Inverse folding.
């Protein structure tokens, strides 16, 4: 049986749906909804008790060969925002924008202050930044559920002051390369290519967007969901982009994220899921299911606009995608410069 035959698209994923439609969610009971979803969609033990890759295990050699065959034009798109002091961060939980400092400059070289022989000079620099201040992956050690990390491990034994001792982001440096799929929900579902803040993207929305693009989503895919939120921030200013209201995935898409067997998902928003969240007095409940229970690699603040324009023009929404995080040993997240190659 071929890999394509075994994959499950949005229309066939998890036919026995556990979570209700978004309108039927009990806004007063996030705890109950999280517990229900965690039990229904857990991948604990699926790849063995020592696993450190989670859903990235869905990307195998055959999947990468399939992805390489998608390159037709040789055009590449960086899906990364800039890393500079003009970024969206406002200091929440000590997240700041990058600080770039020069250690050696052309001025030093021209003045002969560097002490090198025979006229050679150079420049050198350093960057200080939180690892999740711009385009990045959330690693498997980033979110816990009631003190449990990915694969049921004790969070206290996984992430300490020394870093993530088990599922550090460095493990993702090699395997995150495969078939990328763009689901431009902003273009298909919104006005002028953008969704409004608070718009909860459901499984049905994802299905409709994939159908509109003529693309299937399945096992091992890296799915990029464009909402248009970044385009609006660039037009109107950062405002509340970092942590404020935004369109995003509904909590009820946990069934699709699990059943479609995708390897990873990334959005052009700060927090991946819809904000405000769909429960009262809740904070990022879909993260609480997706990362520690499904083992899903989540990308945030990706720049999908140029790629989306090209996909809309040529009608092809699949491509080779390489998205290796910076392999910072023990980190629970890391910057990434994803490259989509068509």
């Amino acid at each position: 049986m071929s890999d394509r035959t075994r994959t499950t698209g949005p229309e066939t994923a998890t036919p026995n749906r556990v979570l209700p439609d978004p309108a039927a969610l009990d806004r007063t009971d996030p705890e109950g909804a999280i517990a229900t979803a965690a039990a229904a969609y857990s991948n604990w033990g699926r790849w063995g008790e020592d696993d450190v890759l989670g859903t990235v295990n869905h990307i195998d050699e055959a999947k990468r060969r399939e992805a390489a065959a998608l390159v037709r034009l040789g055009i590449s798109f960086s899906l990364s925002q800039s890393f500079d002091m003009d970024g969206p961060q406002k200091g929440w939980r000590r997240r700041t924008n990058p600080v770039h400092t020069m250690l050696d400059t052309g001025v030093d070289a021209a003045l002969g202050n560097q002490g090198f022989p025979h006229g050679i000079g150079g420049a050198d620099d350093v960057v200080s930044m939180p690892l999740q201040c711009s385009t990045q992956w959330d690693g498997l050690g980033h979110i816990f559920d009631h003190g449990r990390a990915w694969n049921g491990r004790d969070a206290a034994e996984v992430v300490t002051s020394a870093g993530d001792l088990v599922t550090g982001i460095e493990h993702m440096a090699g395997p995150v390369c495969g078939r990328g799929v763009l689901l431009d929900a902003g273009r298909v579902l919104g006005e002028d290519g953008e969704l409004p803040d608070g718009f909860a993207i459901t499984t049905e929305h994802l299905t409709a967007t994939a159908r509109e693009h003529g693309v299937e989503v399945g096992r091992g895919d890296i799915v990029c969901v464009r909402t248009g939120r970044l385009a609006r921030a660039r037009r109107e200013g950062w405002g509340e982009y970092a942590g404020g209201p935004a369109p995003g995935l509904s909590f009820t898409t946990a069934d699709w994220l699990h059943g479609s067997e995708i390897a990873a998902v990334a959005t052009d928003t700060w927090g991946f899921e819809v904000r405000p969240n769909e429960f009262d007095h809740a904070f990022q409940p879909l993260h609480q299911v997706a990362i520690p229970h499904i083992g899903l690699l989540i990308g945030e603040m990706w720049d999908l606009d140029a790629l989306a324009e090209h996909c809309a023009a040529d009608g092809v929404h699949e491509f080779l995608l390489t998205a290796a995080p910076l392999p910072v040993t023990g980190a629970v997240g890391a910057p990434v410069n994803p490259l989509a190659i068509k």
About this structure: The first strand starts at residue 76 and ends at 78. The chain has two domains: 3-88+131-341, 98-128. The CA atoms of residues 310 and 316 lie 8 Å apart. Residues 1-15 have pLDDT under 50 and may be disordered.
